[in-house]
Design brief:
Strand content of chain A: under 5%
Largest sheet of chain A: none
Distance between the termini of chain A: 33 Å
CATH class of the largest domain in chain A: Mainly Alpha
Oligomer: homotetramer
Number of helices of chain A: 9
CATH architecture of the largest domain in chain A: Orthogonal Bundle
Structural class of chain A: mainly alpha
Order of helices and strands of chain A: HHHHHHHHH
Shape of chain A: elongated
CATH superfamily of the largest domain in chain A: Tetracycline Repressor, domain 2
Largest interface: C-D, 61 and 61 residues
DNA sequence: CAGTAAACGAGACGGTACGTCGTGTCTTAGG
DNA sequence: CCTAAGACACGACGTACCGTCTCGTTTACTG
C-alpha cells in the first residue's frame, strides 16, 4: 500500500513497521466480529496492542483505515489459466464470491462505499486502491483470450479501455449485487449462466460496432 | 409498506398516521444533508416534529428506518413503452441511475446493505422491500418484449425465474457498481453499451440451452 | 385529609372514594421499595390499579401526593398517660423514632422537605398537614403535666405558643437529626438523656424570665 | 475533602485539578437556581465548562456530588470567642441558620438526606463529611467553656462523647427543623431561648448523673 | 556516545449520540 | 363527567466513542 503520510522524516524515532500490519489485521478481525457500525477505533487499537494515538497518526479515521484493510483482501484474487476464457471467468467469479462471503469484506466494503457517497476523497481512495487495482484481472484475462484466439485484438485503446470498464462493472456489480443485496448464493451454476450471457454479449457486440463496444 | 407492529390495538390513543409519513420524509432529508453515518435518530425526530420515543415505538432502529425510507424511492421507477426492448432497458437503466444519483439513495442504500452483512432480519427486509419489489420491472419488460415478438415465450417457470434473477442482478449490479463503487457516470452511451451486451447475451444464451439460461 | 379540589361536582360520574385510599397506600408501598427519587407516578398508578389520568386529576404531582401519603403516618402518634411528664416525653420520642425507622417515612419526609426548599406552596402544605397537626402532642402533654402539677400554668398565650413551638422543634428536630442525619440509633437511653436535658432546661428557664421562655 | 478515587495513577494524562473546584461551584450554583430535583448533571457540567464524562469519572452520581458540594458550605462555620458559653452558642446557632437560609444548603442537604434513606454508602458519606466534621464546634465550645470555668471537666471519655453527640443533634436538629420543616425564622430571640433551655438543661443534668448525661 | 526529536503507551479531556425512562398532556372508547 | 389505556412532546439519564490533548517513556538517527 502507498504511504499514508507523504513526507518522510529524517529524524526522530521511526514508525514501527509491525504496527501497520497489526492494525490492518486487527481491523479485519474487528470487522468480522463487530461489523462496520460497531467497529470502534479504540477496539482496533486494543486488538492491535497499540495506543489510539498511533492509529490516528497513520490514518485520518475509520473510513480510511477500513478501505486499506479491505483492499488487501482483494489482492488475493488471481487468474489461473484454466484453458478457456469461459473457465477463466467462471473461476474468478467464484473467487470473488468467496471473498465477498467473508464478513470482513461484506461489511467493510459496503460501509466504505456508503461513506464514500458523501466524501470525494474517500471515493477516490476506493477507486484507486480497489477498483483500478483489480481491473488487472480483466486486462489479463483479455490478453490471455487474445493469445488463445478467443478474442480479436482491439486496435483503439479508448475503446479497449471502455470495454474493460464495462466488463468490470458488469461482473463485479452482478456478483456484489447477488451476494450482498439480493442475498442469493453465487454458486457454480450461476457463474456459468453469468459467464455465458457475458461472453455471448461481448462476442455479439464486437461484430456490431453500432454500440461502440 | 407493511405494518411495522403486527398487533392492532383496540384501546388507548391511536397512533398518529401522519407521523409515519413525516418521519420517512425527514429521514430522507437527513440522509441528503448528513449521509448515513452522521444521520441521528434525534435529528430525524426533530425534523419530523416528533419525539424520539415515537420513532422508537415504530422502528427498531436506524437500519430499519432507513430501509423503509429508501425503499419508497425505488417505487418511482416505471417502465414506459419506448417501442423496443433495447429502448425500454436503456430507459430504466437511466432512471435507476438518476435515483442513485440522489444522495439519499447513495448513502442510504449502501449503508443499509453494509449493516445487513451482519443482520439477517435486515437483509431479508432489504430483499423483500427493495429487491423483490423491483423485479417487477424485469418481468414487465420481458412480457412486453414477448408481445412484440422480440423474445420467445419461456415454458419452464423455474428457468424463467432464474433468468429474471440473473438479469436483475446483472443490470442493477452493473449500474450500482459503476455509479457508487467505480464512481463513473452512468450516461446514455454507457447505457447503450450495457444494453447491447445484455440483449445479445440473452439472445445467444436462449439459442444455447447448455447454460440453462 | 382535606379535599384536594375544592369545587364539588353535581353532575357526571362521581369520583371513586376507594381510589384515594388505594393511591395513598400504593404511594407508601412504592416509597418503601423504591425511595423518593425512584418513585414514579406511573408505578404508583399501576400499584393502585388506577390510570395515570386519575392520579393527576387529584394531585398536582409527586410532591403533593407524597406529602399526603406521609402525613397520614404521623397520625398514628399518641400520648398515652405513663404517669409522669418525663415518661410521657420518652414514650413519644420512641414512638416518633419508630415511625422514622420506616423507610416510607425516612425518604418521603426528607424528600418532601427538600422539594419544599424551593416551593412555597409545598412548604405550607407540610407545615399545615404535618407540623401544626402534630403540635397537638406538645399541647396535650403540657396540659396533662399541668394537671399533675409538674408544670405551672402559663398566663400569656403568646409565650405559651412560643414555648410549644420551641419544644416541638427541639424534640422533633433532635430525633430527626439523630435518626436521619447522624444515622445513630434512637434508643431508650438516648430518649432518657434527651428528656432530662429538655425538662431541666424548661424548668430552669421558667424560673428565669430573661430569655422570655 | 478526601480523594474520590483512592488509587493514584502514574501514567496517562493527569486529571485537571481546576475541574474539581469548578464542578463543585457549579453544583452549588445549580442548586441555587434549580433546587435538588431539577438539578441535572448535564447542566452542572455545562456550567463548569466540563464534559459530562469528566463529572462521572470523579463522582458516582448526583447524590455524591451534592454531598461534597454542600459539605464545603459548612466548613465556613467558626466559633469566635464572644466571652461566654451562652454567647458562643447563640452565635453559632445564628451562623448555622444563615447557612441554612441559602438555597443551595436547604435543598442540597435535605435532598441528600432523603436519598441516604435508601443508600448506606451515601449515609456514611454524609455522616463523615458533614456530621463528624462539624462536631468540632461542640468540642471546641466545651473546651473553651471549661477554660472559663463555665463547665466542669468530664473525666469519662465515653460520657463526654455521648454528651457531644446529644448536644450536636439537639442544636443542629432544632435549627434544621425550625428552618426547613416548620418554616419559621431562626432569629436572635429564638436563638436566646434555645440556648437558655440547652445550657440550663445541661447544667441540671450534670448535677443529676441518673441520665448519664 | 550523548543529544535530540519523534514515536509510543496511557488515559483524561470536551463533545455528541445513544436508547431508555419519567413527566404531564392528549385522545380514544367505554361506563 | 369519570375511567382505563396508551400515544404523545419533552427532556434527563448514564454509557460509549469520537478525535484531541498532555503526560512520561522509549528508540533510533545524528553531531
Amino acid at each position: 500500500m502507498q504511504s499514508r503520510t507523504p513526507a518522510p522524516r529524517a529524524t526522530g524515532r521511526p514508525r514501527s513497521a509491525a504496527a501497520d500490519a497489526a492494525i490492518l489485521a486487527a481491523t479485519r478481525a474487528a470487522l468480522v466480529e463487530l461489523g462496520w457500525s460497531r467497529l470502534t477505533l479504540s477496539d482496533v487499537a486494543f486488538r492491535a496492542g497499540v495506543a489510539k494515538t498511533t492509529l490516528y497518526r497513520r490514518w485520518a479515521g475509520k473510513n480510511e483505515l477500513v478501505v486499506d484493510a479491505v483492499a488487501e483482501l482483494f489482492d488475493e484474487l488471481e487468474l489461473p489459466d484454466r484453458g478457456s476464457l469461459a473457465a477463466d471467468v467462471e473461476g474468478v467469479v467464484l473467487q470473488f464470491a468467496a471473498i465477498l462471503d467473508r464478513p470482513e469484506a461484506r461489511s467493510g466494503l459496503m460501509g466504505a462505499v456508503a461513506e464514500a457517497a458523501r466524501d470525494d476523497v474517500l471515493r477516490e481512495r476506493i477507486r484507486a486502491s480497489i477498483v483500478e487495482r483489480q481491473k488487472r484481472l480483466v486486462v489479463e484475462g483479455r490478453a490471455r483470450a487474445q493469445e488463445r484466439g478467443e478474442l480479436p485484438y482491439e486496435e483503439d485503446p479508448r475503446t479497449a479501455a471502455r470495454t474493460v470498464d464495462l466488463i468490470f462493472d458488469l461482473v463485479a456489480g452482478a456478483v456484489v449485487h447477488r451476494a450482498l443485496v439480493s442475498s442469493e448464493p453465487v454458486d457454480a451454476d450461476w457463474a456459468v449462466s453469468l459467464t455465458q450471457v457475458l461472453l455471448l454479449g461481448i462476442a455479439g457486440a464486437a461484430q456490431n460496432p453500432a454500440g461502440s463496444v
